[in-house]
Amino acid sequence: MAETTGARQRMRWNAKETIATNAATELRETLALIGVSFPDVAGSESAEGRSFVNLGSAPAGEVFTLAHWIRKKLTQP
To answer: Is 69 within 8 Å of 32 (Cβ atoms)?
Structure first.
């Protein structure tokens, strides 16, 4: 029974890791469309078992580019 429980836990963790990894990949690919790169973006799971995307350290120039792009999109008529 312990083996089955362990296998289920691994499956749940793998699913969460896959969701986080896919989200990180999606973000990287979408940012690339506007010429922005956050090199440390990675999917992970927190201690509480939730899927997270760690944005890591991002170059200030890239953050400015993203912020300006968002602002422009939000303020366009």
So the answer is: no
Residues in the chain: 77
Any residues with CB less than 8 A from the CB of 59 and at least 6 apart, and which?
A: 37
Task: Provide the token pair at 47.
Answer: 């201690």
Q: What is the per-residue pLDDT across 29-71, written as a single tens digit (0 to 9) for each?
A: 999 999 999 999 999 877 677 888 999 899 999 999 999 999 9
Task: In whole angstroms, give the CA distance from residue 38 to residue 53.
Answer: 12
Taking a C-beta distance cutoff of 8 angstroms, is the pair 37, 62 a contact? yes
